[in-house]
Amino acid sequence: MKEQEMKKHGRRLPVFLLALLVFVIAAAGIAYGIFQAGTGAVSEDSSEIIVSIENGSGYYQIIDTLDEAGLIRNKTAAKLYVKLFAPDNLQANTYILNQNMDLKTMLDIISTGNFQYLLKTKFTIVEGSTIPDAAAHVADALGMKQNQVLKVWDDRNYLRELIGEYWFLTDEILDPAILYPLEGYLYPETYFVADQDPDVETVTRYCLDMMGKKLEPYRDRISELGMSVHEFLALASVVQDESFHPEDYKKIAGVFFNRLKKGMPLQSDSTVLYALQEKRINVTYADLEVDSPYNTYQYAGVPVGPICAVQEEILDACANYEENDNYYFFACEDGTVLYSKTLDEHNQKVKDNLWY
After folding, report:
1. For 331-343, what is each residue's pLDDT tens digit?
2. What is the pTM of this model?
């Protein structure tokens, strides 16, 4: 009896071990699959992400940085990877990575400081800034002088090339009365240029490509308003320069549209100061006499061209302005905007709240 039982147990033991072995192999395969998936690319789409690796960053800090940038599928798997296959000489720098890169690829780039993926040029165009401001930032990024950038942006042959390339650029920008043809068309944004030796033309297209993306959703609406894109941007730039708080964007746009519909001059101080190429708050009666198609006290309608760079929120505010009965507004020192329906009401509010 005992011998038979031992034979039975002897026959069962290999089966048990075999099952255990199969289980271990299967578990290991699953774990490896999860590990591989966890260290794979987060997307098949090609989308560039700017990542800065700080001096002194350790492996885990770099994984945290990549994770915050949305480039890690599974942080636990990623940290296990660097523990098992820690690359050498990780180099601090700012890199242009991609969502379709797996962890190994990104770490190889960071460990070698691969020049191909290093951020080379960065510049910013600020909302409400003018073309000379933008030219100064671009010139600084490219190691040039401001007047060299302005010269390119004023080249008629180059401008005609751009007009043929971008749907929103027309011959309106070639009006001799316009101070800077591309004023209002370079979208305000911080740009990261990956090209090894970018020139003015390259960075200009970065800005115009972005403006095209921002304007496209409003293309039909601009036509419904009975305006050209140039006229729309000219008005939007006035709203940009006259507005301080988001809650006032659509209200102020509504005031200006009311004036346009009634045939009243916009009477924007911002356009007078732009005509004078000055930046200050107060406008004198002498300033109002400047003979310029930018002076909306002397010339009805929108100014001859935009007066500054316009952000997306302002584009939306003008496309979807608030309908109201106001024809006047005044900004107090704390930024509060007072609206009025009549000139008498407006004058009294200005008298009571004048601060400059």
Report:
1. 888 889 999 999 9
2. 0.75
